[in-house]
């Protein structure tokens, strides 16, 4: 399921921005231009699918903190609006999801800092006109039944919960469930803890791990899964050797716990444990596990992955991103021109340059339709 386009309105620095997307989406810009807000808006679409939108926005300081604070048109509703269009290429089905959330009315149920979902809609298109599968206005939800008729769902939604999550779990509405499952499998990696107590440095329970958790807490299990379940660490080993001057991975057969280490050419008889590695080394290993895991997520998003990495690691990182892009859609936010150039060269894409336009985040050269002119890439 390819994320074909996205829209975000009135979220932080995103006044109104719509973008067409491809297999590799590379965003470059200076600090303060809003690159991370683009990334974060996509996370909020996933939060709507998972049913955690209210928690995510409350954790940012609540609706009043995340709304666009610039000039608004007269009588314009004070709402965040998010849209995502996914294409199921095998079945030639397009899914379009939209959600709008705003502030709590003065007299209404709910807590002050959580969002109030105003409207929500999921439509599908199979070559003809779009067909609405679910529409929500306030607490009431209309959903298309097996006979094709729109009917009112017997359960009303709380003002802070999403109909997408409420209906997607039951198995009664396959289109809603399909969209929800696809979005829930996206992976977002926004830095990793690298301190002494970081989960990256700890053994973890030896449970087969097809993908890296977003906090990296199952790093050892992901590496052990590649080494002992797939029995293939070729790409991972190549990335490690390129980044660490010929170092090799050591992955003992797991018992109750999985662990790993590195062997460096200067010390061939010694296995360096994760607690002994530098911040940059352990962060690179986490990125390697995110990009080269046993199972590929439909979309993997990296926000400034170059943080704490030695410049010599950027070329191996770009190689891993290009390898991941063979099976996953990639969303990469960076302010490293060196990393961007390597990704451009290896993936055959042109970076989207993020700028500020009248205070709002924008993409240099992008038309209002979301397309980028050929001369700009």
TrEMBL record:
It comes from the Bacteria. One of its GO terms (molecular function) is ATP hydrolysis activity. Pfam families: AAA_15, AAA_21. InterPro entries: AAA_GajA/Old/RecF-like, ATPase_AAA_core, P-loop_NTPase, RecF-like. Residues 270-339 form the ATPase AAA-type core domain. Residues 1-46 form the Endonuclease GajA/Old nuclease/RecF-like AAA domain. GO terms for biological process: DNA synthesis involved in DNA repair; double-strand break repair. This is Putative ATPase. It comes from Mycoplana dimorpha.
């Amino acid at each position: 399921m390819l994320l074909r386009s996205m829209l975000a309105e009135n979220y932080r620095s995103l006044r109104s921005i719509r973008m067409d997307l491809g297999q590799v989406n590379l965003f470059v810009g200076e600090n303060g231009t809003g690159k991370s807000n683009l990334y974060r808006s996509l996370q909020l679409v996933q939060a709507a699918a998972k049913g955690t939108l209210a928690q995510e926005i409350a954790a940012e300081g609540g609706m009043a903190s995340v709304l666009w604070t610039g000039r608004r048109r007269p009588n314009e509703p004070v709402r965040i609006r998010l849209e995502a269009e996914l294409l199921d290429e095998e079945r030639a089905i397009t899914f379009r999801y939209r959600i709008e959330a705003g502030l709590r009315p003065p007299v209404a149920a709910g807590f002050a800092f959580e969002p109030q979902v105003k409207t929500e809609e999921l439509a599908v298109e199979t070559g003809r006109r779009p067909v609405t599968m679910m529409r929500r206005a306030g607490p009431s939800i209309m959903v298309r039944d097996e006979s094709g008729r729109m009917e009112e769902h017997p359960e009303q939604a709380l003002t802070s919960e999403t109909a997408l999550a409420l209906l997607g779990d039951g198995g009664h509405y396959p289109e809603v469930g399909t969209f929800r499952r696809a979005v829930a499998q996206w992976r977002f990696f926004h830095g990793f803890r690298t301190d002494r107590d970081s989960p990256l440095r700890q053994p973890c329970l030896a449970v087969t791990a097809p993908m890296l958790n977003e906090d990296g807490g199952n790093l050892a299990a992901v590496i052990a899964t590649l080494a002992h379940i797939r029995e293939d660490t070729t790409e991972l080993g190549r990335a490690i050797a390129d980044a660490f001057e010929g170092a090799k991975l050591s992955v003992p057969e797991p018992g109750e716990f999985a662990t790993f280490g590195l062997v460096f050419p200067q010390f061939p008889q010694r296995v360096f444990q994760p607690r002994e590695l530098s911040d940059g080394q352990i962060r690179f290993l986490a990125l390697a596990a995110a990009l080269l895991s046993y199972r590929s997520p439909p979309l993997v998003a990296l926000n400034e992955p170059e943080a704490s990495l030695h410049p010599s690691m950027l070329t191996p990182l770009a190689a891993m991103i290009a390898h991941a892009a063979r099976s996953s859609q990639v969303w990469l936010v960076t302010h490293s021109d060196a990393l961007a150039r390597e990704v451009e060269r290896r993936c055959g894409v042109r970076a989207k340059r993020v700028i500020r336009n009248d205070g709002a985040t924008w993409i240099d050269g992008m038309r209002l339709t979301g397309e980028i002119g050929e001369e700009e890439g």
